[in-house]
Amino acid sequence: MRRAGCPLNELPIAPQISIPGNGGVFYSSSEFSCRAPYEPSPPDSPGGCDSPPGEYSYANGPPYYGQPPQTRARIGSMVNSTTVYGPPAAPRSPISAGSSTMYLPYWGPGARSPAALPHFASSVASETFGAGAELGGSLFAEHLLPLKSNGTIVRMILPEERDAMEMQDLIVPSVSPSSSTGDLTLDCFTNEQRYLGSYWMWIHPLFPVVHKPSFKMQTVSPLLRSTMLALGAHMMQNPTDMGNARIIHECVQKVLKKRAINGWDTFRVCDMQAIVLHEVFATYRSRRPPLQFSKNFDLIYRYLAHDLEAINQELARPLYDSRSHTRNGYEDLAGDFPPRLEAKYKQRLLLACYVIDQQHAMLFGRQRTDCLSSSMSGLTGLDLPFTRSQAYWDATPDHHPELWAQKLAAGLTPYDQVYGALSAVPNMTAPSDWRHDAFRSMLMLTNLTDPDNDLEACGIYLDDTTDPSAVLFAVEKTPRMRLAYHTFMLCRHTPIRDLLAVAGESWVLGEKLSSQAQHISAQLSARDWAMGPASTHSSLDLANDDDDEQQPAESAVQRAIHHALRILELHHKHPKTGLLFQEWSLYLAAIVLWARAYISDHPSRNPQLPLEPMRPSPHDLELSLLALISAGSAPATAVVVTRAAAQNVVLWAKAQIEKVDVPHNCGLTNCALDVLGKLAGRGGEEGWFA
């Protein structure tokens, strides 16, 4: 007699789950205890223990997805919340932002290995889902993905099985520079090792969304590994490795598109890390810079902006910040470690999204998203949590108490919000002995140019007309951060989109203005900015101008010129600072000086200038550049930029960018060289400005 199947809505709370291993063999979750949603998480064991026999295995090591999330509500959790911050408890599709490993079989006490911690797949969204009464079929839809053949679902697979299938599409090219240069020293390391080392050196300080102490190359998500290697390869700055970086990036892009087509999107922590780092590459290093962010990035940004763990300032501090929660200084590293680490992941991912969003608009003249401002509380950049230092984030657990003791001994007060860190800057009269790291420094500088931040209303008075600015006393003391500061301040005093449209002849980094009227409007705006009051004053009058109505316009263009000269000076001394937009900064400085010279130094005032001036040598270009920088460094002097000097700057900047450019590889450098080439050839012709 045929036995009827049990309906899904009558399944027990902790149903048996069969997971295919290699060769199609199944093991049942009944062999290992499975927790109900109301049961507490098992204790962690620092050493871990062996996984059960017949586990789902991979060629590169044990699975990285860790244990099921804690389902008991914790501080900052939305389990008991009914506000719009929490996702609904109703059934959701596999594309939801919840945990993709929810209710996987528990492998016994201490089964989670340290290598799995950075990719712990739990989330507050999954806790909310688990707290709901409707389990049934939605339980499986939460973490199983459809495997289709000819449009028909053959079976359901786990995200980890999908990851294993994607590995063949994410192979790192084996071609290395040693093949063409004969440098045998490179043969000692694989491309993966070299690219990972480059990632830790150049990318990780600026976007520390990966926990380095617990990172394991053998067990990391294949997609996350590829995004890290692509960024590291591009920072090697040689044609072979940069070509490999482009190949890896395009492979990642194809995998993400395939996920969307097949309904395979998941948003575990490791997925969010990969998508954010992929967006970093796409924004600054891809062959075709995007006009707007990808759908996945936008979704993650909005999700994190509504996640209490990501925006809760209290969770930005370690537990032993409060002595009432101390257990030999290791409370943050004991049984509560995975959820605490996950909260810190989400905070850093949210901050990284904010930085990328602001820089995308500020540097390239794009539209800012409303992901942050559309949150329930109407967040601004000043409201974001101010994470712990990079030294703490990158240190092993046994060094955390020592680092914290050093900060306490120095009398430093930890800031919970970005506002607190910025509000302390105006009172600084000397460089700090404890400067902020690169990530926190970039967060502070980015907030200075966010138009949604009313700094003066918040009591933050930061006037960059003083040199050095007080903010430079607080941020990281490195060329990359000073270059970032001057670049952001240049953008603050310049109508970037209008200037890019004028220099690009109605093109703004791959974006064509929709009408001739928009182009004319950009020309008029850029002309008014570049002209300022200097068109009716001599250079000596500018220094003593008391006309209040003229001063703001003069200040804008002169401050932009000041920062442009500082950018040129920094690049001359430090050709590689590690900033992902360094060459773009150089390009912006060049077109600012060109626009100013074009408007203020009309050829009719210099009738003896030759129509076709001779191209100076590289040495002459450098001498002209240094002379202009020196003139701009004189105190209380409004520097005069002639067309000849601006022409030399354009040629010098073009030569510098060509040193690191690979044709058809990086859209930013390709665009900059294209425009600078036109300005060098016919930048003095009539018709650039209306």
TrEMBL record:
Keyword Nucleus (UniProt): yes
Residue intervals of the Xylanolytic transcriptional activator regulatory domain: 196-373
The keyword Methyltransferase belongs to this UniProt entry's keyword annotation: no
Coiled-coil residues: none
Renumbered residue ranges of the record's region Disordered: 36-72, 535-554
A GO BP annotation: DNA-templated transcription
Protein name from the UniProt record: Xylanolytic transcriptional activator regulatory domain-containing protein
Assigned keywords, A-Z: Nucleus
Highest taxon in the source lineage: Eukaryota
Signal peptide (from-to): none
Taxon lineage: Eukaryota, Fungi, Dikarya, Ascomycota, Pezizomycotina
